[in-house]
Amino acid sequence: MANVSALRRLASKSSPEDFEASARRVPASAEHDRILVVISTINAVAYLVYAFVTLPVMVTEADGVVARWYPVVGTVLAFGPGLALIGVRWASDPQRRALLAGIACPLGAVAGAAVWATAGVADAADPAVWMLDFAGLPAVAVAAVRPMCEALAVLVVCKGSAAYVAVAHCPGADVGAMAGEAVFGVLFTSLFVYVTAMVVRAGASLDESRSETADLVAASVRNAELARFDGLIHDHVISTLVAVAADPHDPRIVDLATSALTRLDALADAGDAADEQISAVELVGRVRAAIVPAVEAAVRMDPDSAREFPSSMVRAVSEAVAEAVRNARLHAGTGADIVIAIEVSDHRVSVVVADDGVGFDPDAVANDRLGLRLSVRQRMVSVDGGRSRIRSAPGEGTTVEVEWTRP
Description:
The protein has helices at about 1-10, 15-25, 30-60, 70-85, 95-120, 135-145, 150-165, 175-245, 250-265, 280-290, 310-330, 370-380, and strands at about 275-280, 295-300, 310, 340-345, 350-355, 385-390, 400-405. By secondary structure, the chain is an alpha+beta fold. Helix 2 (about 15-25) packs antiparallel against helix 8, helix 5 (about 95-120) runs antiparallel to helix 6 and helix 7 (about 150-165) runs antiparallel to helix 8. The protein is elongated. The two termini are about 30 Å apart. Mean pLDDT is about 80; it is low at about 1-25 and about 270-275.
């Protein structure tokens, strides 16, 4: 029964859920959120500019035509939601904040037009055109959070409301001219609505692509673990069974069975102590073996270190370092120098891979650099105490550090 429970614990170490959970630690909507922040900020600035330009016009056109309190109410309704878009930049949930502010923008504009229509106190000599100029901004805000067809519908409604404001208290207004202004505004602003919708969609597609890549990396790591376990079963368990079938009295069978059970128990012992333990010297040897021979490596190891290290951690560090070196050789540029520093103490293992190549912006990682961000991070978060850091900037090279601290 002991060997059966060991096999069960061994299988549980490589369950798909473990790898999928660590893959989900990569943000699933980073690019989409970043685009929402940029669009919302631009729209808020546009609202602010139009407020400075339009409010004096609105006050002048409202004087003697609508109730005296209207300029204050109209300002809050027409411009308040748009100015609130700036809050998306600091929101913990940008999508939710952008959605609420985006829906409030057209509601405020329509409410501002409705209040203007009901607050009249006299007729005006000229149309009130103050709302026509910025009535397209609510549609852009909606395009960032809702389907484009809904944003276009909002555009028509808001421009129509602005045209109604123009003629509401002006019996002599040219209704056809105001309608033409509204139609022109709809056609002109439709371009901005379309561009906004396409940019947001591109961000969502990029996030989806990164999420799929994370799943593929998780599957790759899982398959590698399964291949390692399959090798263990083949080399030790099955070979023992074959020896038993060939000659049950072979004296070597006891040694083979003992060796197989020992290896199974070393990998499937209770809890996190399941790992085979290896020395600091072997740890350094395995890490160096994973590095391309042409890459220089400096090693600093505590000479008094006597503690051993879990093999799963050593394997994760070795694979992560190999991935970092591979990326440096591929992307640092011709002639870039790559150096590696390995530091080992009783309680900490650190490996730094640095190059003086072209570098990149970690906040704007291209699709071909997903291996660096996902493969390195994926491997390190799969072991307790593991972490990774990536520092880079255009023209300043790249530094990748993988670190393990004894839990």
